[in-house]
Structure formats: C-alpha cells, structure tokens
Design goal:
This protein has 176 residues and is an alpha+beta fold. The protein has one domain: Alpha-Beta Plaits (2-Layer Sandwich). Helix content is 35%, strand content 14%. The protein contains six helices and four strands. The chain has a four-stranded antiparallel beta sheet. β2 and β3 form a beta hairpin. The chain is globular and about 50 Å long.
Length: 176
Amino acid sequence: MRYRRARDEGATYFFTLNLAERHRTLLTDHVDMLRDVMRDVQRRHPFHIGALVILPDHLHAVWTLPRGDADYPTRWMTIKAAFSRRVAPGEQRSASRASKGERGVWQRRYWEHLIRDEADYARHVDYIHYNPVKHGLARRAAEWPFSSIHRYIERGALPADWGGGGNLGDGDFGER
C-alpha cells in the first residue's frame, strides 16, 4: 500500500519517527551511532536540519530539502535501515517482519508535515525543543543534551532558560 505524502520539491518538513518498541531507549543509548548514520546520509543525499531532538524512543526533526528534491522517504529509509543494521539485535519481531527478514527496530511508518510558513516553522521548532520537558526528561529544554536547542542558544536566538519556568505561554504548540 502506498500512503499519500506531501512531496514538494525543496520544501521544509517536520517529522516524527518512533521505535517499534516504545519502552526501549535505543536512540539515546546509541545516539552517536544515530548521529553518524544521519551525517552519512546527509553527505550522500543533502538536506538541512533546522531542528532536531532525539529522545529515548522517538525523534522529531525539521528538514529542508534542496531545490528540485522531494525525496525525504529515501533519506529516512536509509537512516532507519543503517541504524537498524548497526544496533545489536534484541528487539521483538512480528511474524510478518521475520518472514521478510526485517528487523523490528522502527515503526514502519512515520509522521511528516509540510511546513506552510514562518509561523508554522517556528511552532514546530519550539515543539521539538520543548519535547524533552513535555515528556518529563528535563525541567528546562536546555537540560536535554540531544537537541538542537543548544545551537539556537549559542546563536542568541533563544535564552538559556527557554522552555522552563513557565516562559512558554500554554506550551501546547498547536497540539489540540
């Protein structure tokens, strides 16, 4: 079955990818491996990472693809496959996955959203940076080590205490 996905060339997208077993912590346990895989794919199939957060069982990213290129599915497929090959086996596999010789590291599908405008971009970047606080992994966004928020703070785009102490308003980022 083919799923309908936005496929605008040179566009900016928000993504969410989840582990198949949501109780596992593979992404943060092997964060350097995941980063290496992403950098390798980025060298072969360029894209710009506007924001990224890696949590124990899922990640969120905002990517901008090069002009004339809409092929984010190949990039994610390659990242997921390379990470799965490098991480030690130990996950549960369904009969369907086992019969196809597939690992059971990632959920097969992922969420993508085509960013519409600057306000949509800002809302999704904030959502990414606030996610560790939302999930109770940090009191302030900057406390989470696996986040692009540190790049934003270094550039002066966000204060170091952003995402903590009630300075975000309602903090729902359009999730209602």
